[in-house]
Amino acid sequence: MKKRILIFAFMLILPIMSYASILKITVKAPIHPITSEYIRDTIDRAEKENASLLIIALNTPGGLDTSMREIIERILSSKTPVLVYVSPSGARAASAGFFIGIACDIFVMAPGTNTGAAHPVGVSITGQSMDKTMEEKVTHDAASYIKTLAEKRGRNTKLAEDAVRKSLSYTEKEAFEGKLIDLIAASEREIIEHFDGKHIKRFSGEEYLLELKGEEIIDIPMSARQKFLITISNPNLAYLLLMLGLLGLYFEFSNPGAILPGVLGGIFLLLAIFSFQILPINYVGLILILLAIGLFILEIKVQSYGILSIGGIIAMIIGSIMLIPAPIPELRPSLKFIIPVVLGLSSIFIFLIVIAVRAHMGKVHTGKEGMVGEIGVVQSLSLIHI
Question: What is the Cα–Cα distance from 324 to 331, expressed in whole angstroms?
Answer without folding.
Answer: 8
